[in-house]
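#struct-help
A.M.: can someone run this one for me? Single chain, 362 residues.
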Amino acid sequence: MALEELRKKIDEIDAQLVAMMNERAKYAVEIGRLKREAGSNSVYAPEREREVMQRIVAANPGPLSNTALMAVWKEMMSGSLALEKPLKVAYLGPEGSFSHLADLEKFGRSVQLVPVRDIATVFDQVARGEGDYGIAPVENTTGGAIRDTMECFLWIHGPVKICAEMALPIHQYLLSKTSLERVKKVYSKPQVFDQCREWLAKNLPQADLVAVGSTTEAALLASRVDGTAAIASSMAAELYHLDVLNPAIEDNPQNQTRFLILGRESPKPTGRDKTSLLFSVSHKAGALVEVLDILRRYGINMTKIESHPSPAQSWEYFFFVDVEGHASNENMAAALEEARQHTRELIVLGSFPTAVSAGVTA
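D.P.: on it. Structure tokens below:
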């Protein structure tokens, strides 16, 4: 076929896609109406999102990658959500932060993204109903657990539920208005310096490393101060008109941050779920082992455990545990009921679908 014929075919397909996307959106709006009539105010359904993405990946014959198709569907679903109900999603700002990137990745550009000053405010927005959802980082493959998020679960765990999760690849960019040879000072967060320690030692051994509150603040300073650079996201380079001196300077190319999506309702079981638990035990020998052994006896797989000091009692600890399965499943419910008899306090922080990656086919 000639070039013009090929382009004509693409134009015809584009017209069909536009019509079909709008038809899909009309059905989504009707679903929203039926849910409201049934008394539900929830628009975002993580269990449905997982089902759709799983089906798209399984149906993809190529040549488009799963990642590309999932990105298209996420934006299409974002537009449908906005038609059902205007959504507000809080994230740790300012614009250009990795939480901002995660928010865009999860909810798309059709919802209202609200930057807030700290992780505690993300929780507070959701708890008070000022935001429909919030997104908070919980752990990084290099830096480990995000303590601020864990502390928020200790203080604000009433109406706030974990309703979804996602993993965002974290690539750190060296940004500046000057050349690499002229950089005398580098701004970023302490955690980011930890992620780029080897690269900095090799390429900028004489530069002063100045810790600031956020990568976006680092980019802003680098845009104003001569002879400086920032380590931040690629979006920060666009926002503050900085050049990318070096992309992906993180020492671990597999560096990722896991984010939790916070809401006020728990999703329905999907068959591939996680449950996050928070509990404390008596200060006696074997108390933690007793709880973990209950999970073992019920055949429940634990995927994560973290300890955190109690804010109310010295030398007492809370444990954050992720297990496979949904809290409403009969087996899980029985295990949790027995575990409560061996704990001072046990809270289900949320049951939610495990994240779908581009490699998932079933």
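A.M.: thanks! The mean pLDDT is 90.
D.P.: also worth noting: The chain has three domains: 41-170+256-263, 173-246, 273-351.
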